[in-house]
Amino acid sequence: AVLLHSSHLAGCVPEKPKRSALNQLTRTLLRKYDCGVRPVHNWTNPTTVYIDLILQSVLDVDGKTQSITTSIWYRQIWTDEFLVWDPEEFDGVSEISLSSDAIWIPDVILSEFVDEGKSPPIPYVYVNSSGSVKNYRPMQVVLACSLEMYAFPFDKQNCSLTFRSWLHSVKEIDLALWRSAEAIANDKREFMNDGEWELLSIPSHYWQFHQDDTDYAHIQFTVLIRRRPLLYVVGLLIPSIFLMLVDVISFYLPLNSGTRIVFKISILLGYTVFRVNLTDEMPATAVRTPLIGVFFVVCMALLMLSLIKSILVVKLLHHSEKEVRQMSVSACLLDKYGSAEYELEPSLEGDLLSLNELQDTPSGLEWLHRELVSLRLALSQEDSESLGQADWLALCSKLDCFLFRLYLLVLALYAGTLMMLWASWSFA
User: Fold this and answer.
1) What is the pTM of this model?
2) Which of 90, 117, 144, 404 is deepest in the core (most CB within 10 A)?
3) Which residues contact 12 (CB under 8 A, 6 or more apart)?
């Protein structure tokens, strides 16, 4: 009876479940694995790490800190000789994922690395039965880059991503490209091409750097990008050009109307406010001022020059005749306006003599005659003054026209030079 009871209890106890093939394989591979040892049976054989890179987007280009923030898909592939198994022994399992902290990972880093950014952690790697380890992960990295902002907004940037082993020489860790250099250079399928930057190509090359009697392997990817200038042309350049055209048109306001100077001051004030509001749109550099910054400064200088020129001409226009005679600008001015003593006609001289003679004994008719003669003299003097003012206005108008043409020449030369520079950069 005891034996029957014991057999009955044994039949009620559930069987201990077998470990899955995946669990058994993981325990078998990692039981005696040392993640601090380079995974080769012969230590003289180097471990070749294959690298692949796909650029996804350019997030930020900071000229002040000389850095660029990019989002990339990065792949490392190498062979781990300690992670090899026969799939038939483990239910046909030919590929598993292992914790990246449990196995050996090559110390391949970016030389231009500044900050890791917001990269999602990927704690696993894939390993197949032949020992090939695949480490795939997205990365958002901030890289140091020598940025050239002088041609903004028609600039092109050339930034490098250099991968190397930090400690191991080429005898221990060698690097190679997983795909051909041509395939990597022309791969734009994942790049977000709707943003501010356009990807031109990503050329790459391999070389060895000799230091302390040791060679170190390097692979450099050069990211060539070009800025799309339409946003800045519409928001920065075109409004400035419109304000400069309005300033040029203001020269056609009448010289003696008194509104030209007020109008030019309003344009200068508006341009100053426009420039201050767009300060954040300009790239900040500590080494070299962008050409567009020079453009804004010269435009403001031209507006001030236009205002000073108008003030000078208006000041000359409102000089009194006495000041005009004393200016001695040229012999022609003196010859033309020096005779402002108002020479009298012979008939007026006779009237003036008769007026002097009649001042002693005025009678009714004589008083009337004297008043008529005085009125005629006053009108004659006023006509002479009006004629002199008209001549002076004509001379000031000619000076204004000359300065206006000179201003247009300077403006045209400056605009032509800028257009040639920006056109050469834009289509290069």
Assistant:
1) 0.70
2) 90
3) none
